[in-house]
Amino acid sequence: xxxxxxxxxxxxxxTDGGRxxxxxxxxxxxxxxxxxxxxxxxxxxxxxxDHTSGTRTAATTFAHFRLxxxxxxxxxxxxxxxxxxxxxxxRTAYTIRGATLVAEVTDRPxxxxxxxxxxxxxxxxxVGILRRSIAFDxxxxxxxxxxxxxxxxxxxxxxxxxxxxxxxxxxxxxAADLVHTYATALAGERPHLPPAARGPTPVLDPxxxxxxxxxxxxxxxxxxxxxxxxxxxxxxxxxxxTLVQSPVRLDxxxxxxxxxxxxxxxxxxxxxxxxxxxxxxxxxxxxxDFAIGTAVADRPAGTEEExxxxxxxxxxxxxxxxxxxxxxxxxxxVVDCVLHAALPLEDIVRATGRxxxxxxxLYQATFLLQNWPRQAHRAGPVTVRTRPVPPTAPQAxxxxxxYDDGDGPVHGVxxxxxxxxxADRLPLLADHWHRQTLAAPADPSAG
Length: 447
Fold this sequence. Notes:
Blueprint: E1 37-38, H1 41-52, E2 60-68, H2 73-86, E3 92-97, E4 100-105, E5 115-116, H3 123-133, E6 144-151, E7 154-162, H4 168-186, H5 206-219, H6 235-239, E8 243-249, H7 252-264, H8 269-285, E9 289-297, E10 311-319, H9 326-339, H10 345-352, E11 365-370, E12 377-379, E13 382-387, E14 398-403, E15 411-417, H11 426-439
Parallel strand pairs: 5-6, 9-11, 11-14
Antiparallel strand pairs: 1-4, 2-7, 2-13, 3-4, 6-7, 8-15, 9-10, 12-13, 14-15
Helix pairs in contact: 2-4, 5-10, 8-9, 8-11
């Protein structure tokens, strides 16, 4: 079904505060704050992806909010702008100074009106329309677009955000703030929230960094790449490829059994699901020692209510995943990876000497699990809930992203670029993963 055309695209930009500062850090451009800081590792990663991928949407993430209550587009726009004023990440500009990527908060980022889409627009259609409208400019703190779809009892709100400013956990933070600002705006008052102070960014001392480098060198010793049948994909090949995907789902009974097996083995469902993915990959690729990339939250104390890019990717080494004790070994390895996740991925690549690879270094398969509570945020006549949105562009040679609310069915999607050897194997991979999730023993004594 073709995507419906949007009803209105009214865009106004204030560019007076959106130009890179040309002077020293203590002489900011109009609209900028008086301080600047070096970008974090996550911010550097997505800035680089934005500037090297060859596509303007490679570094974009999407969020979906279900609003129940009165729909007033003007009030909603005011509410969203108040939330952006609260969170520095949504109005931060990124520029190069010397050899350093610098992040600098601006008080007047570019402003855009929402896209008003017809009732009945689906999630995939709304996201597709937003993708085609994106023209982010990180140097101008232009990081956000949104669209609204009316519903009989409220609206669907979709955000397109540059990943440099937003991660999965940010969705719940934003929903909690939005419900209050929107309720205030509906009451005819000016929505306002106190500024959310940016939390600290941990800094590694030289000894700690050296120890982490030694750890990752040991942990990834002997780990190879997944076979690619000579395709030798580069990161650019991946992110510019056409996305191919296949849905995956465990029914209610299977999801309940999964959680019970995880508890019995003293591991989390994450470990069982990741181990099943590793076993499926190993079976189809005839591989035994490889790594799977996964996301680890990087939110130190004080950042729980902060919108921003607060996660890091780590390579989880998987050795002999077809052995009976795979789940418990995977769990031990995941814990070890989390404990050593303070070293940025770019530094792990350097420490292992894998940076010269044309392919994605360290891992070619990615596993992501969204399992945080999706609460009903309420204020006045309004309720806001977040909804999962699958990745809209290739992230790896093959990716499995799952959603688990802790009670209902586990579901998600397998994805690959059309250039990957996995593109034609996704249904087969989904079938293997499903059977491995149901059958692989979580306890070696049960095998």
